[in-house]
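ligand=phenylalanine
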Amino acid sequence: MTLDDLATLRQEAERSLERVHDLESLQAWDRDVIGAKGSLTAFLRGLGKASPEDRPALGRAANDVKTALVTAFDARKAELQSAALDARLATDAVDVTLPGRKPTIGVDHPVSQMIRELSDIFALMGFQTAFGPEVETGHYNFDLLNIPSDHPARDVWDTMIVDTPNSEIVLRTHTSPMQARVMEKTTPPVRVIVPGRVYRYEAQDASHEWMFHQLEGLAVDERITLADLKGVLREMARQLFGPNRRIRFRCDFFPFVEPGVDFAVDCMICNGAGCRVCKQTGWLEMGGAGMVHPSVLEGVGYDSEKYTGFAFGLGIDRIVMQRYGINDVRAFAGNDLRFLQQFAVASR
Ligand code: PHE
């Protein structure tokens, strides 16, 4: 244990401190040199074994080395810490002069907006909104609606079949299957609307899509009449298109209603005089309707002597097209944002 040993220790310590370039290796250096188990500490501890005449000089020198090394350590530490901070600031830097990025906020599709509006309108008349499966069985899509398998009416729906051999699984061709599903779970009075997607195997053109939207309405109670149907539809038309609207019924046939009608609203653009929007007819076709057929009521276990009801099905897409002057139904599912974004304002 000599002054030379101390000089060597100091030299090595200083050299290795120069090689320290991050806080982690600085910590290691601290541990190896000036820490409790470090080389300098060991040297200081060993002083007791030095001869009495060497001890004072060795001790003084060792303490000087310690002061020098601790000072060097502190300086290095401060340097590395500020370098680390600089690096972090550089990567986290925010350029406050850049213009902000506008978040794009999604809005409802125009058809969804219309579904909500219709639900609100019918809620005021006491109708609940229900949703049903888009994949249906032939039982609900046809049988319970008085359309037996051998009936030619089954063919007119252009049904898309999901699964064949023995079970008849179809994409629902209308929202009417929900009539039976709702009635099976309810005892009258029933007042419900069912908006949703329906599917038909059809050639697409400006007014036909293979997927479109219907809104089914159903009311069953004692003494419900065709007048109730007309009143409800007229109220809907007034809420949608303004206070002067009128409803037109014409005879039509659907196996699940008797009597059956198609219904139209007088054109809100020309008040029924005839214009481009209503194709000079004065009327806008809305859908089919009628009094629920007794066999449909009996099919779900209702007493058709006691209860009567009305049902209607209207095309939602067409209403949206009329409201906004859209002339091609394919735009709705075309997923062109330039089209859809035009409705962003409408729903806020
Ligand atoms: N489900 C019929 C259709 O899709 C419409 C309708 C509903 C007719 C309810 C009468 C009663 O065309």
